[in-house]
Amino acid sequence: MKKNLPVPFFVALFLVLCFSGNVKAAAFQDVAANSWYAPAVTYCYEQGYMNGMTATTFAPEVAMSRSMLMTVLYRNAGAPAVSAENPFFDVVADTWYTDAVLWGVENGLVTGYEDGSFRPDRDVSRQELMVFLYRFLSYQDKVPEGDGDAALYHSFDDVSAVGSWAAKAVIFCTSCGLINGSDGYLLPLDSSTRAQIATVLQRFDGYLAGNTCQITATAGDHGKISPAGTATLVDGASVTYRFLPDSGYMVNEVKVDGISLGYAVRQSVAINGANHTISVTFKKKSGDPNSGYAQLVNRSYPIVNAASYVPNDLTAVSYVYPGKGNQSMRSAAAAAMNRMIADFKKAYPGYPLYTQSGYRSYATQQYLYQNQISKQGGNTYKAGTISAVPGTSEHQLGLAMDVTTNGTLLQSFGSTVQGKWIAAHCHEYGYILRYPAEKQTVTGIIYEPWHFRYVGVDVATEMKQLKVTTLEEYYDLYLSSANLNPYLPYLK
Ligand SMILES: [Zn+2]
Question: Which of 273, 394, 423, 486 satisfies CB 3.0 to 4.6 Å to 400 for a cystine?
Answer without folding.
Answer: 394
